[in-house]
Amino acid sequence: MKIKFIIIAILLFSGLHFAQAQENNLNTNKDSLNHVFNQYYKLNLKVFQQNSTLEDIDNIFELFTDDFTYVHPNYGGVYTREDLYNGYKRNQANGGYDGSVVDIKIENVIYGLNAITVSKRFITKEDVKTVEGEMQMALFEFKNGKIFMIKEYW
After folding, report:
1. Over the stretch 95-146, which tens digit does the pLDDT of each residue have?
2. Among 27, 61, 72, 137, which residue has the least CB neighbours within 10 Å?
3. How far apart are CA 3 and CA 80, in angstroms?
4. pTM over 0.70, yes/no
């Protein structure tokens, strides 16, 4: 009888320990994804400024996997990592990053398994006032701690 009690106690303790380890793993994963996600928007905001450099763009692309894909059906569909990089460089060279975007306001974030869905607004400077843009939605998928895909739904 004592042996059955000891075995049950060990199994219960092991189960609780396993559940706690799983919860810690999920929290660590969420924190890790959240860090990369926040860096992405922080670095983009820096690139959107008039004095941004090619190094600023390169810093964004350090967050992406080598097989990264950007999907934006409203702006032409699917872009490879190289396509998107060239687009950033072209916009920068053409003066497209002029400092008019002054912030990116995150309205809501939903965490999933190696994914984050976000609703956000671009805050822009128009004349002497700031204006909140339309609500936009995006899905971020992650692989090995880096952004694997971004899909925009606006």
Report:
1. 999 999 999 999 999 999 999 999 999 999 998 899 999 999 999 999 999 9
2. 27
3. 61
4. yes
Per-residue CA distances from 145 to 31, 38, 140 (Å): 11, 13, 12
Q: How many domains does the chain have?
A: 1
DSSP state of 49: S
Q: How confident is the prediction for the chain on average, in pLDDT? A: 87
Can you point out the beta strands (E) in 30-154?
64-72, 77-80, 101-112, 115-126, 129-132, 136-143, 146-152
The arithmetic mean of pLDDT across residues 51-56, rounded, is: 96
Residues 6 or more apart whose CB falls under 8 angstroms from that of 83 comprise 70
CA distance 145 to 36: 8
CATH number at residue 11: 3.10.450.50
For residue 126, give its domain range: 2-152
Name which of 64, 119, 116 is nearest 88 in CA terms: 64
Lowest-pLDDT range of 3-7, 100-104, 105-109, 150-154: 3-7
Q: Which residue has the tokens 């869905």?
A: 117
